[in-house]
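F.,

This is the one I mentioned.
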C-alpha cells in the first residue's frame, strides 16, 4: 500500500473521532434544581458505565443543587438526592466501571458554561419560567421535569420563548411512556381506540405549587391512549372524587377519575373497535387476554429516560408544544367547569389568546 493511502486513512480516522483519535465527547448535560427524584432517576440511566444504544454519547456532568424555598421538605430532598448524585457509580468493584463524578456548581451561569443541554428538576413548577428563561436564552436544549409549569400562563411563556430562541424544549410525565399505557393505542385486542376511562390519585392536600397540575399524570395517560383533539370538558368535584369528562372533535369521549378516598391505582379501561380491555398498570406491560402483567420487568422511569436521551443528543421534541398546551387548556377548562357547577366549557387556544 502507498504512503498516500495511509495518509488518507489517517485523515478519515481523525474526521470520525473529532480530530483527536479518540471517541467523540458525549453531550454534556446539567441538572438545574435537584429536589425532584427525577434528578437521580434519569441520571442513573444517562451515566451508566459503558453505556450502549440510546444512552451512549450523553452524560450528566454538572448540577446546580438548589431546591424550592416554598416547597415542603425541599431542603431535605436536596440533601438526599445530592448525596446520591455525588456517589453515583463512584465506587465500582472494577475500577474500569467508574464514571467521571458529577460536579456541583454554585450558579446557573456556571452550569450553562459547562453543559450543552439542561434538565430542570425543581419540584416547584412556579420556578420553571425563570429557570427556563436563562437556559433557552443561552441556546441550550431543555427538558423540564413534570410539570412544565404551575400555570397555563407560565407554560405558554416557556414555549413561546423556546420558539423565539429556536431552542427545543419539552416536558412530560413518565406515565406517558409506561408500556402498559402507550401500548394500548395499538393494542391487538382493542383496535382503534374510541374511548378511555383513566383513573389515578388526586392529592387533596397538595402544596400550592402542585394544585393546578394535580391530574397531570393521568391526563397525560389519557392523551397517550386517545391522542390530542379535545374540544370541550365538564368537571364534577365531590369529597370522594374529581371527575373530568372530555369530548374529542371526532365525538370520542375520555374520562379521568381523580381518586380522593379509597384505594389508589394508576391505570385505565380502554374501549376500541375490536374489544374492551383494562390497561396495564404504571411501570408494567400491556395486558394479554385481559390479564395485566405484574411480574415482568419494571420500567417506571426507563421509557421517558430513552426519550430524554434521544432528545438531548439532537433528536426531535417528542411531545409537541401544541399537545402540551392542549393539556394545560383541558385542566384550565375543568377548573372553570367545576366553578360553574359542572357546565360544559370549551377549550381555549392558550397560544393564540396569550398576551403578546
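My design for it:
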Amino acid at each position: 500500500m502507498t504512503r498516500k493511502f495511509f495518509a488518507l486513512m489517517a485523515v478519515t480516522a481523525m474526521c470520525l473521532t473529532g480530530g483527536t483519535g479518540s471517541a467523540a465527547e458525549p453531550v454534556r448535560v446539567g441538572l438545574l434544581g435537584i429536589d425532584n427524584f427525577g434528578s437521580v432517576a434519569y441520571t442513573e440511566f444517562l451515566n451508566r458505565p459503558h453505556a450502549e444504544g440510546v444512552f451512549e454519547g450523553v452524560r450528566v456532568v454538572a448540577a446546580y443543587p438548589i431546591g424550592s424555598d416554598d416547597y415542603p421538605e425541599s431542603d431535605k430532598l436536596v440533601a438526599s438526592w445530592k448525596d446520591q448524585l455525588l456517589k453515583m457509580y463512584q465506587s465500582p468493584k472494577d475500577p474500569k466501571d467508574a464514571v467521571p463524578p458529577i460536579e456541583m456548581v454554585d450558579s446557573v451561569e456556571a452550569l450553562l458554561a459547562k453543559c450543552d443541554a439542561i434538565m430542570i428538576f425543581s419540584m416547584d413548577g412556579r420556578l420553571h419560567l425563570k429557570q427556563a428563561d436563562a437556559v433557552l436564552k443561552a441556546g441550550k436544549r431543555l427538558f423540564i421535569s413534570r410539570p412544565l409549569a404551575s400555570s397555563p400562563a407560565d407554560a405558554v411563556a416557556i414555549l413561546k420563548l423556546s420558539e423565539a430562541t429556536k431552542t427545543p424544549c419539552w416536558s412530560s410525565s413518565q406515565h406517558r411512556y409506561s408500556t402498559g399505557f402507550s401500548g394500548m393505542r395499538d393494542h391487538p385486542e382493542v383496535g382503534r381506540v374510541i374511548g378511555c376511562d383513566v383513573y389515578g390519585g388526586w392529592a387533596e392536600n397538595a402544596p400550592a405549587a402542585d394544585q393546578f397540575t394535580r391530574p397531570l399524570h393521568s391526563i397525560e395517560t389519557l392523551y397517550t391512549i386517545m391522542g390530542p383533539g379535545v374540544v370541550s370538558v365538564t368537571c364534577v368535584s365531590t369529597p370522594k372524587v374529581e371527575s373530568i369528562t372530555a369530548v374529542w372533535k371526532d365525538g370520542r369521549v375520555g374520562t379521568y377519575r381523580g381518586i380522593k378516598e379509597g384505594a389508589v391505582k394508576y391505570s385505565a379501561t380502554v374501549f376500541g373497535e375490536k374489544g374492551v380491555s383494562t390497561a396495564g398498570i404504571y411501570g408494567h406491560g400491556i395486558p394479554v387476554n385481559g390479564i395485566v402483567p405484574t411480574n415482568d420487568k419494571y420500567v417506571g422511569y426507563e421509557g421517558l429516560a430513552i426519550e430524554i436521551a434521544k432528545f438531548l443528543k439532537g433528536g426531535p421534541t417528542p411531545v409537541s408544544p401544541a399537545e402540551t398546551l392542549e393539556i394545560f387548556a383541558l385542566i384550565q377548562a375543568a377548573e372553570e367547569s367545576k366553578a360553574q357547577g359542572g357546565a360544559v366549557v370549551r377549550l381555549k387556544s392558550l397560544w393564540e389568546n396569550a398576551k403578546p
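Residues 15-174 form a domain with the Rossmann fold fold (CATH 3.40.50.720).

Talk soon.
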